[in-house]
Amino acid sequence: MSALTTYPADQPGQGQTWHDFDAISSQLNGLGVQFERWQADCAFTTDDDADAVLAAYQSSIDKLKQQYGFQSVDVISLNAEHPNKDALRQKFLSEHIHSDFEVRFFVEGRGLFYLHVGDQVHAVLCEQGDLISVPANTKHWFDMGENPAFKCIRLFTTEDGWVADFTGDKIADSFPTLDQYLANL
User: Fold this and answer.
1) Residue 145 and residue 137: Cα distance in Å, rounded?
2) How far, CA to CA in Å, does 20 sit from each of 27, 30, 128?
3) How many angstroms separate the Cα of 106 from the Cα of each of 35, 149, 154, 169?
4) Nearest C-alpha neighbor of 143 from the set 162, 117, 123
5) Of 94, 123, 148, 182, which residue is the least packed, with the fewest Cβ within 10 Å?
6) What letter does residue 171 receive in the DSSP assignment?
7) Using CA atoms, how far apart are residues 74 and 114, in angstroms rounded to an integer?
């Protein structure tokens, strides 16, 4: 179940949570964030690579490319056995921005995006079928949890793909991790 919790940026224990998809979408639309529910009905095996994922969703990808002019697309997929899961988690947990508009479509699993907008932090629990956009230059971080289990298609407006500018702010350290967030839902 998708969820949204909005916190004052300086009070990570004082959040208000929404579980209703329409309410989540409405709250995020006010921030310029697109949040939609798509069909994620393709099943993959552990042997399926990024090309298989992209081929399965090619028509949806083509539609997004045409709509937004995306120049590059890739697949990020992590599971609990991934040898670099801890290093990748730490990289995504650091608050950063991108100069381009980006979109994530969860074809499997879940993850927790934190969007730091003004004096609020919005935690968005994304699950299979959720599509979320992060507007250019929005401070954010992402937690995949200690035992990641997700597969996402990522779309970018530049050919360079995922390029982050880290803010150096340690704000992410004071907010719940994905595992803590799920335990408190």
Assistant:
1) 24
2) 11, 16, 16
3) 11, 11, 9, 27
4) 123
5) 182
6) G
7) 21
Q: Is 105 helix (H, G, I), strand (E, B) or coil?
A: strand
pLDDT tens sequence across 19-63: 999 999 999 999 999 999 998 888 888 788 999 999 999 999 999
User: Where would I find the beta strands (DSSP E) of the chain?
Assistant: 3-8, 16-18, 35-37, 72-79, 96-97, 102-117, 120-127, 130-134, 139-143, 149-156, 165-166
d(CA 84, CA 86): 6
The residue length of the chain stands at 185
Nearest to 41 by CA among 59, 23, 29, 24: 59
DSSP class of residue 65? H
Looking up tokens 């994905």, which residue turns up? 178
| CA 41 and chain centroid, separation | 19
Torsion of CA 37, 43, 47, 53, to 10 degrees: -40
This model's pTM is above 0.85: yes
